[in-house]
């Protein structure tokens, strides 16, 4: 199985677990004399099976990511950490640009006038550069996911 397939299965498993949670909550309590919509014991057994499957997938994905090199000295795990921090940095810079670029409507000269304390043009260029780096890195990671066999 390819790493990308395992990632899809992991997402499906997580969705199934969340659905089981909701079904269990609906069946957790009933009025006296009523029956739950589903048997909680059956749902709990299904939950345990899904959780074991998820644990196995996560362990195998993590093992594969930490042992697969994208390029010399850089594993998939390293690239994922780099991508996450690039996305965070991009988000912060984008928020700063939006906060600094807010237009104000002044109706009289007695109202307070605000000025940007940062160079919006430079920051926007930085946001664009970070966005491009994230896209390129994500493409490299996805290509590796489709070409890498999942480790047992």
UniProtKB/TrEMBL annotation:
Keywords: Coiled coil
Keyword hit for DNA-binding: no
Keyword Coiled coil: yes
Gene3D superfamilies attached to this UniProt entry: 6.10.320.10
Domain of life (superkingdom): Bacteria
Coiled-coil blocks: 3-67, 120-147
Protein name in UniProt: DIP1984 family protein
Species whose genome carries this gene: Floridaenema aerugineum BLCC-F46
Lineage of origin: Bacteria, Bacillati, Cyanobacteriota, Cyanophyceae, Oscillatoriophycideae
């Amino acid at each position: 199985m390819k790493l990308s397939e395992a990632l899809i299965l992991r997402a499906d498993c997580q969705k199934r677990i969340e659905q089981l949670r909701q079904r269990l909550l609906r069946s957790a309590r009933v009025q006296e004399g009523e029956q739950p919509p589903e048997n909680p014991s059956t749902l709990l057994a299904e939950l345990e099976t899904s959780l074991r499957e998820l644990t196995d997938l996560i362990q195998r994905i993590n093992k594969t990511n930490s042992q697969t090199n994208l390029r010399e000295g850089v594993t998939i795990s390293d690239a994922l950490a780099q991508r996450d921090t690039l996305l965070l940095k991009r988000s912060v810079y984008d928020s700063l640009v939006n906060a600094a670029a807010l237009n104000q409507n002044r109706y009289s000269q007695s109202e307070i006038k605000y000025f940007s304390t940062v160079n919006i043009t430079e920051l926007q260029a930085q946001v664009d550069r970070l966005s491009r780096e994230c896209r390129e890195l994500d493409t490299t990671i996805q290509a590796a996911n489709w070409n890498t066999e999942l480790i047992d």
